[in-house]
Amino acid sequence: MPLPTIIIKLSLCVFLAGATLASYAQDGPPSSTSNTGIGKKSKSSQGKQRKKKIRYILKKDTQKTLYGNPCVVEITQEKGFEYLVQLKGQPGYESEMQRAFHNFGVNFALLFRNGPFWKSGIRKKIAACRQKSGDYVGP
Description:
Blueprint lengths: L2 H25 L27 E5 L10 H10 L1 E5 L10 H19 L3 H16 L6
Parallel strand pairs: 1-2
């Protein structure tokens, strides 16, 4: 046999043996998965609960936000954001441009998190909260 063929076959065997050992090292040896201890939780229920990061959408006024309504706060936190009212001249207020850039970044992140039509869904749920809490004025 020519030398290049032997080298190819030998390197293929080494690669396959290394891949097999690597998968064995990651999984470990087969073990019992039953949980017979009293009062112990299974490993799947011990997983870390990932806390949602709440982002803030800055508003000039409280119009259409139902600021302080518990129903709306629950809905917005579920979607990963909250409305924060920042008046002109208030500490922490820098400029309208700064607020616009901040809100653009938050809305862009929420677009990936909640889907492209998340705002219309929130508006509908806020309208339902408004009607449920008696804040609705209309025909």
